[in-house]
Amino acid sequence: MVHVPDVWMPILLAAALVFVASSAIHMFLGYHRKDFKGADDEDGLMDALRNLGIPPGEYSFPHVGSREAMGSEEVREKWSRGPVGFMTLLPPRNPSDMGPQLIQWFVYCVVVSAFAGYVTGLALGPGTGYMEVFRMSSTVAFGAYALAHLQRSIWYAQSWGTTARNVFDGLVYGLLTGGAFGWLWPV
């Protein structure tokens, strides 16, 4: 058994590698450009939402507040008429002010790497070979980075193409994590 404090170097290296890889993927490769669509009348949509004064948050429409309401004729009519959707509204900001999100992303990468180190350390002892450590830690990291994206397509109608791209990213992040752990695993 290997304890998490014994693998702090691969935890930090894996988090840094994933952080850099995700930046490269989103800034240079461009395959995530298809993840979101723009409205034909973006200015009109933004004006309408701004005029409604809806605060930042997560919204569903039509909103069904209870199981009983789901069966009501009024709710059925709203769902039939449409539009039906989910919406996230953020506070207004400059699009280049991503500092808080980048910090949170790096912390998340550290947490995923620590979890991968913890699980791998439970299963494997010091001196375990590169491929065994790689296989275990990359599998755990892949699960953390990739599998939750499937829920977005199942429940929120996110395109399966977007989900596939996110799962592919998770595979890359998992492999980088496994590489860091395999390389720096305690002897």
Describe it:
This protein is mostly helical and 187 residues long. The chain has a domain at 4-37 and 96-184. 65% of the residues lie in helices and 5% in strands. The protein has eight helices and two strands, in the order ααβααβαααα. The protein has helices spanning 8-29, 42-52, 67-70, 73-81, 99-123, 130-146, 149-156, 160-184; strands at 57-61, 85-89. The protein has a two-stranded antiparallel ribbon. α1 runs antiparallel to α8 and α7 (149-156) runs antiparallel to α8 (160-184). The longest helix has 25 residues, at 99-123. The protein starts with 7 loop residues before the first helix and ends with a helix. The mean pLDDT is 93.
Could you list some keywords that capture this structure?
8 helices; single chain; 2 strands; two-stranded antiparallel ribbon; 187 residues; mainly alpha
